[in-house]
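Batch manifest line 268
LIGAND: NAP
JOB: complex structure
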Amino acid sequence: MLEKKNVLITGASSGLGRALAKKFAKNGANLVLCARRSERLYDLQDELIKANPHIKIHIVIADVSDKNSSKNLVEQCMSQFSQLDVFVANAGQGMWSRFRDISDPDKINELMQVNFMGVVYGLFYSLPYLRKSSGSFIAISSIQGLIPVAYHAGYVASKYAINGLIDTLRLEEPKIHFLLALPSWIANTELREHALVGVGRSAVQVKKQHKKNVISALDCAEKIIRALTNRKKEVFIPKIYRYVPILRDVFGSTFDQLVMNKIQGQIK
Ligand SMILES: NC(=O)c1ccc[n+]([C@@H]2O[C@H](COP(=O)([O-])OP(=O)(O)OC[C@H]3O[C@@H](n4cnc5c(N)ncnc54)[C@H](OP(=O)(O)O)[C@@H]3O)[C@@H](O)[C@H]2O)c1
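JOB STATUS: finished
ARTIFACT:
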């Protein structure tokens, strides 16, 4: 079903984006891979072409938080492939800090610029082409786009914003298939390493790795692709997390405390 489809992935240089690129390539899709670190992308291109010699891959070095860069990304995709079937808005930055410990409120603006405006720009410029192909727009949100999570205020806000944007666009653009991906923690990505952190002695220090085994980026990518091919509106990863919003409605502050305990377990 994905063979010879043209798929654009933002944030393909590491973590989930890289895993998605591998899975789409295995399914025979042509790829436009975007991120800021060029070497990572060219290495990935070599690896993917070696394993899947029949696909085409085009690399675009782009900053999704920049409007012109995002516009150029879509233009390059169209001049390369003439058609866009799937846009995966994956690029993102994490946050591990109390709100009061960030050095400047504009740090939240910078985070929103990547996590939210990056999706807005990608969607805006790809929309005419996705309408034409009746294609899919996948937004990589998070379970944190549905519940409050301490030390993640800006990140949570950016993911809530994505969910609102995508749920509304579904109503306006019935020709396009919108998929919201709502993963919980994913193992071995660089999200923590590059997260917005606080300053000062009271700033929280997050552990480098998750406490226990969490889903791998490749398994997460597999579930997203399955949801795409089944034209699902949303995918919770793991699936059981679909009960999270309901549990919060029912158990209120007890549920919030459980999440808080889980988060505290990640602090050094
Ligand atoms: N890890 C988790 O537990 C988890 C859970 C739920 C949801 N998610 C979501 O999954 C997505 C991928 O994150 P990840 O966990 O795979 O983290 P990651 O390993 O840090 O990957 C982030 C990717 O985004 C790219 N990126 C960051 N800022 C960018 C910018 N301004 N312009 C272009 N590309 C940019 C990075 O590439 P360059 O630095 O090379 O530009 C990198 O390829 C994010 O949206 C994240 O919120 C992650």
